[in-house]
Write a structure and sequence with these properties.
Radius of gyration: 16 Å
Number of domains: 2
Bound molecules: zinc ion
Largest sheet: 4 strands, mixed
Mean pLDDT: 81
Shape: globular
Order of helices and strands: EEHEEHEHEHEH
Number of helices: 5
Distance between the termini: 31 Å
Low-confidence stretches: 58-63
Oligomer: single chain
Structural class: alpha+beta
Strand order of the largest sheet: 5-6-4-7
Strand content: 15-25%
Length: about 140
């Protein structure tokens, strides 16, 4: 189960829960997600600060495959985000908590991404948790 921060065209913000990323995309594309406040179905996903943690056992060989022939930073970040959204589990606001749980072996090791504050990333790095803050495309587009 994953959750996304969503916003309707009337700027109501709410959280949506989905089985996985595919289910979310499907429902979004079919206008099946409606705002709980005004029933509006013109929903967009809010991208806030986003970070990833790569499981150490699965990184390496199947790491990010970026096209180095076109060193366009924007494209690279976009590709990285797409890769992450398709291959990493979105743990949303629980990122710091989950990253820590994985780091200390409380939870199964896996690739995750989610929202963090700069402060949380700093704390995680201080604890030796392998996290990587990635820029938000939405912010870059502005
Ligand atoms: Zn609304």
């Amino acid at each position: 189960m994953i959750s996304f921060d969503l916003e309707c065209s009337n700027e109501h913000r709410f959280e949506g829960f989905f089985k996985d990323y595919k289910a979310f995309e499907e429902q979004l594309n079919n206008n099946m997600i409606t705002c709980p406040i005004c029933q509006d179905s013109r929903i967009k996903r809010l991208f806030t600060g986003c970070s990833i943690q790569a499981g150490s056992s699965s990184s390496g060989e199947n790491g990010l495959q970026l096209n180095t022939e076109t060193p366009n930073l924007f494209e690279m970040i976009k590709k990285a985000r797409e890769y992450i959204q398709n291959n990493f589990e979105n743990v949303g606001k629980n990122f710091a908590e989950t990253a820590r749980a994985i780091h200390y072996g409380v939870e199964e090791e896996r690739n995750i991404y989610g929202e963090t504050t700069g402060e949380e990333v700093k704390e995680l790095l201080d604890e030796g948790v392998n996290v990587l803050p990635i820029p938000s495309i939405d912010k870059l587009q502005n």
